[in-house]
Amino acid sequence: MKETERKIVEILEKIRPYLNNDGGDVEFIKFKDGICYVKLKGACAGCAFADMTIQNTVEEMLVSEIPEVIKVLNVEEA
Question: Does the chain have fewer CB atoms within 10 Å around its N or its C terminus?
């Protein structure tokens, strides 16, 4: 695992307990060209606030703490 990916996973581990409290979770999918791809799971996957969770929590933390990350996208379940 590359250093940037390791840092992403580390930060997602910090966010995870808050999502778990609401019956949700987050999974790291990949990091490519400055974009971090994650998948919201559990209650978060179908939540009306999923986009806000990605932008206001996950993206905000990753972009502020890891210079290589410029955006976070949610890979929705098929």
Answer: C
The pTM for the full model equals: 0.91
Which ranges of the chain does DSSP label H, i.e. alpha helix? Answer: 3-21, 50-53, 60-65
User: Taking 50 as the threshold, does the pLDDT of residue 78 lie above it?
Assistant: no
Q: Where in the sequence is the domain holding 11, given as residue range(s)?
A: 3-74
So what's the pLDDT on residue 77? 54
CATH number, domain containing residue 33: 3.30.300.130
As for how many domains the chain has, the answer is: 1
The token pair that represents 50 in the structure block: 């999923």
Contact 4, 37 (CB under 8 A): no
C-alpha span between 75 and 78 (Å, rounded): 9
Q: What's the number of CA atoms in the CB half-sphere (13 Å) around residue 42?
A: 11
Q: Determine how many CB atoms are found less than 10 A away from the CB of residue 36.
A: 26
